[in-house]
């Protein structure tokens, strides 16, 4: 019988740091009003679960979105990935966050020009 090699916390931490996550902009769209909440994440797969949990608990940081969620119910909202940011392997966390901030501000400006309603 083969024994599994014990994994240390340090090994687990290093393995996690090496993982590649999808980075970019996501939205939560109110189907009733077509209003959109835009945000960024360094892990787009996890972003939806996090924001949905906050909304279900009544703890979302965007009070207008939270109010509409409470009013219309979760079935009136849809989650979607808007765009992904291509990141160089050598990019630092600070650089990624700065690029994400620039990326979403540019995207919001374009949407506002077309008359889109956003949760701010």
Describe this structure in words.
The structure is a single chain. The protein has 120 residues and is an alpha+beta fold. The chain has a single domain, classed as GIY-YIG endonuclease (3-Layer(aba) Sandwich), CATH 3.40.1440.10. Helices cover 46% and strands 19% of the residues. It has a four-stranded mixed sheet with strand order 3-1-2-4. A hairpin with a 5-residue loop joins strand 1 (24-30) and strand 2 (36-41). The longest helix has 21 residues, at 93-113. The protein is flat and about 45 Å long. The model has no long low-confidence stretch (mean pLDDT 89).
Name a few traits of the molecule.
GIY-YIG endonuclease, 4 helices, 120 residues
Summarize the SSE layout with pairings.
Elements: H1 9-18, E1 24-30, E2 36-41, H2 44-57, H3 63-72, E3 77-84, H4 93-113, E4 118-119
Q: Spell the H/E element sequence.
A: HEEHHEHE
The percent range for helix content is 40-55%
Averaged pLDDT, please? 89
Separation, N- and C-terminal Cα atoms:
59 Å
Structurally, the number of domains stands at: 1
The CATH architecture can be given as: 3-Layer(aba) Sandwich
Could you describe the largest sheet, including whether it forms a barrel? 4 strands, mixed
Name of the CATH first level = Alpha Beta
Radius of gyration computed on alpha carbons = 18 Å
Number of E-type strands: 4
Strand order of the largest sheet: 3-1-2-4
Low-pLDDT windows of residues = none
Structural class: alpha+beta
The protein's oligomeric status is single chain
Number of helices: 4
Q: What fraction strand? A: 15-25%
């Amino acid at each position: 019988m083969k024994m599994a090699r014990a994994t240390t916390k340090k090994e687990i931490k290093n393995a996690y740091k090496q993982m590649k996550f999808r980075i970019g902009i996501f939205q939560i769209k109110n189907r009733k009003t077509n209003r959109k909440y835009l945000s960024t994440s360094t892990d787009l797969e996890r972003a939806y679960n996090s924001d949905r949990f906050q909304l279900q608990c009544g703890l979302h940081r965007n009070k207008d979105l939270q109010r509409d969620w409470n009013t219309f119910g979760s079935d009136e909202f849809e989650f979607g990935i808007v765009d992904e940011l291509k990141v160089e392997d050598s990019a630092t966390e600070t650089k990624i966050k700065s690029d994400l901030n620039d990326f979403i501000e540019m995207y919001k400006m374009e949407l506002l020009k077309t008359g889109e309603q956003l949760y701010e």
